[in-house]
Amino acid sequence: MSSTWHILGAGSLGSLWACRLARAGKPVRLILRSPQRLQDYTEAGGLTLVEQERRTSFAIPAETLDAETPIQRLLLACKAYDADKAVASIAHRLAPGAELILLQNGLGSQDEVAARVPRARCIFASSTEGAFREHDWQVNFAGHGFNWLGDPANPLAPTWLDDLAEAGIPHEWTPDILTRLWRKLALNCAINPLTVLYDCRNGGLTGHRCEVATLCAELADLLQRCGQPQAAENLENEVQRVIQATAANYSSMYQDVRNGRRTEIHYLLGHACRSAMRHGQPLPHLERLYRRLVEHLNSHGLPSD
Ligand code: NAP
């Protein structure tokens, strides 16, 4: 029998993974932030997955952060800004040889977590799947996508990838996970902040082509400098392709700001600007974009870290 999937964070992606693993008969336990959240969850009777308007409920067992059970495998499914603190609160429960799968978008939080639990194996993930919470404990599977997984410190694939295959979670093990994460970060930096500042859908950026091109040129330079030449290849073309293909969509950052939610800016544009500074590389347009976005968030009463 495969070992238990502890899943920290029963939000959108955490619930999506939990329901699919449970449906495939894999042992799953949710880790919730407080006794109050555990009580709410218990009263709800489990998680509900909504897929093409079909609702299926799963009575997945749950516990709080301070439960006693040892953790062999942890899917960390909180936001990037919560990752380090969340892992710190369960670090004492990690069994020898424990593995963590880090679902966070952007870069920087993975290194914070790895430094927090140096004896655990940290596997980085980059997901293009889309899910959102309609209510607490109910997740809507909104966009089919893919999951790339990899460990920058060890190219050997873990045996539990079979669990993902049996659960119908589309995935591939890649030695180039950092290239994937950098590429996704660059796409995000070129699109999402501008949609917030111009208050538009992704397609609205067709009216700001020169600005997007200038940002792409700086981002491609940064990727080269960070040892990620593959992530820099044809960046502007792909950014323009994504803008066209998702023209009717609002970016995730736009939606966060619109709904008064904290963004992951620190691990996206913030990470890009900090990396440039570390390399002594001036990127004036990207830095100006960062300052404008920070001002915008602050003026809306939202944190910018
Ligand atoms: P989300 O819906 O906000 O869920 C995050 C969950 O983490 C919440 O349920 C929150 O608990 C929980 N949490 C935070 N700190 C915790 C702690 N200390 N202990 C226990 N639980 C804790 O976020 P999400 O959309 O799933 O995103 C997770 C990550 O995946 C992000 O980095 C995001 O960028 C990335 N991602 C998301 C999607 C998507 O479609 N949603 C797609 C690709 C990548 P409470 O409910 O109690 O607040």
Quick structural summary:
Pathway: Cofactor biosynthesis; (R)-pantothenate biosynthesis; (R)-pantoate from 3-methyl-2-oxobutanoate: step 2/2. This protein is an alpha/beta fold and 305 residues long.
Describe the model.
The chain is of the alpha/beta class and 305 residues long. It folds into two domains: 171 residues, Rossmann fold, CATH 3.40.50; 121 residues, N-(1-d-carboxylethyl)-l-norvaline Dehydrogenase, domain 2 (Orthogonal Bundle). Helix content is 44%, strand content 21%. It contains twelve helices and twelve strands. The protein has an eight-stranded mixed β-sheet, sandwiched between helices. Strands 4-3-10-9 form a four-stranded mixed β-sheet, with helices on one face. α5 links the parallel β11 and β12. α3 runs parallel beside α4 and α7 crosses α9. The termini are far apart. The model has no long low-confidence stretch (mean pLDDT 97). The site of NADP nicotinamide-adenine-dinucleotide phosphate has 29 residues, from α1, β2, α3 and β9.
